[in-house]
């Protein structure tokens, strides 16, 4: 069967997962090597140094490209190193229109590392009219979208914004970390480039750091690959192998995350100590209808406001047991976070207030444990 004809749950296991040609080993070996023997100067079997290419990483890239139906995939040492390479690839003085509620680390990278090279403007990209206005007024070269955003889970209408991007000749980038290609395919919706922190759902087991980019744009891929080879943030063969192992269960994990998240969101919505729950799968979510159209599921991330202030949220965060208080998301185990002081600590207070990131905001990454146990854990902490 051709790779392109396989369904998603087959691709995650078989594309790039073919048995080793030489030995028949069903599980591909980890090519833990920095260099490769040459038969004559410059004559090699396609590999010469592992910063440039490594067979384990090649397998992972092949797998990832197939999941987003892209021609090219590039794997790097972390999500942020990949974003740095993309920023380096843009001509100095580029104007980048950016979702206003992006991952805290992306905000820090853009505003403190690349702020002298490029101009960034942060806007609410869920407002399609505002996006069009800024495409005229600000006249950006690129638009950087995160949908759903982190932590407010705002949904940008990708189809509409990508049509605008094409109309105004703006390159579109979508951070698809929260949905994974299982629930959302930005390239199909018209985006030029998809980026991922593989640290989260793609690997899914909280044991590696990694980034990936998928695109059909050859010249952009070549540029970013050349930069990754020149600057050097490559992923180790062992970490690539772990992602290849973790990704096999992406389809069933995403289903399980979502099933639990829907139950948890509904439970929280009726709890008297909860002010408000934000989950794209709830009818109360302001962009629920767009979410239903452009995503094939709603994911495992939930944000909510607890009634009271810092005392109440701190007590809750200290009392949950199955939900570990930790940075990150997307692993099989449930995590709880306090965006104001954790993932979004590097964002100025004024901006956090504007976005609604207050001390009573709590974010859950709902894992794939038994949902009754998860709800019992929340119930105990809330009471
Ligand atoms: C974690 C995360 C990143 C950064 O990725 P790292 O692998 O931690 O460098 C970028 N975007 C989103 C949405 C994330 O959650």
Describe the structure.
This protein has 383 residues and is of the alpha/beta class. The protein has two domains: 3-247, 3-Layer(aba) Sandwich (Aspartate Aminotransferase, domain 2), CATH 3.40.640; 251-382, Alpha-Beta Complex (Aspartate Aminotransferase, domain 1), CATH 3.90.1150. It contains 14 helices and twelve strands. Strands 1-7-6-5-4-2-3 form a seven-stranded mixed sheet, sandwiched between helices. Helix 7 (180-183) links the parallel strand 5 and strand 6. Helix 5 (128-137) packs parallel to helix 6 and helix 12 (310-319) packs across helix 14. The longest helix has 20 residues, at 250-269. The chain is globular, with a radius of gyration of 21 Å. Bound molecules: pyridoxal-5'-phosphate (PLP). Pyridoxal-5'-phosphate binds at residues 78-80, 103, 105-106, 146, 150, 175, 177-178, 197, 199-200, 209, 211. Residues 78-80, 103, 105-106, 146, 150, 175, 177-178, 197, 199-200, 209, 211 line the site of pyridoxal-5'-phosphate (PLP).
Describe the structure concisely for a colleague.
By secondary structure, the protein is α/β, with parallel strands linked by helices.
């Amino acid at each position: 069967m051709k790779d392109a004809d396989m369904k998603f749950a087959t691709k995650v296991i078989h594309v790039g997962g073919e048995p080793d040609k030489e030995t028949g080993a069903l599980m591909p070996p980890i090519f833990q090597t920095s260099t490769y023997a040459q038969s004559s100067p410059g004559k090699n079997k396609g590999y010469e140094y592992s910063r440039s290419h490594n067979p384990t990483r090649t397998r992972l890239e092949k797998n990832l490209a197939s999941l987003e139906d892209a021609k090219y995939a590039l794997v790097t040492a972390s999500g942020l190193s990949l974003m740095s390479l993309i920023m380096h690839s843009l001509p100095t003085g580029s104007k980048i229109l950016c979702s206003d509620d992006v991952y805290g680390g992306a905000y820090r990278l853009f505003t403190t590392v690349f702020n002298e090279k490029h101009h960034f403007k942060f806007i609410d990209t869920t407002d399609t009219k505002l996006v069009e206005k800024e495409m005229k007024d600000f006249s950006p070269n690129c638009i950087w979208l995160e949908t759903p955003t982190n932590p407010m889970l705002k949904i940008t209408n990708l189809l509409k914004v990508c049509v605008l991007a094409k109309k105004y000749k703006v390159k579109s980038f979508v951070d698809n970390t929260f949905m994974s290609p299982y629930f959302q395919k930005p390239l199909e919706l018209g985006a030029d480039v998809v980026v991922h922190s593989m640290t989260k759902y793609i690997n899914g087991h909280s044991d590696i750091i990694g980034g990936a980019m998928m695109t059909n744009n050859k010249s952009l891929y070549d540029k970013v690959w050349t930069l990754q080879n020149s600057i050097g943030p490559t992923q180790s063969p062992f970490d690539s192998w772990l992602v290849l192992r973790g990704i096999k269960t992406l389809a069933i994990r995403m289903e399980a995350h979502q099933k639990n998240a829907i139950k948890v969101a509904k439970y929280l919505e009726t709890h008297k100590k909860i002010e408000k729950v934000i989950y794209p799968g709830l009818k109360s979510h302001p962009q629920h209808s767009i979410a239903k159209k452009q995503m094939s599921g709603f994911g495992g991330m939930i944000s909510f406001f607890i009634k009271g202030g810092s005392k109440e949220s701190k007590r809750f965060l200290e009392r949950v047991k199955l939900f570990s208080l930790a940075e990150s998301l997307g692993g099989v185990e449930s995590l709880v976070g306090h965006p104001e002081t954790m993932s979004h600590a590097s964002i100025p207070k004024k901006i956090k207030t504007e976005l609604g990131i207050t001390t009573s905001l709590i974010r859950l990454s709902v894992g794939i444990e038994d949902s009754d146990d998860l709800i019992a854990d929340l119930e105990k902490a809330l009471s």
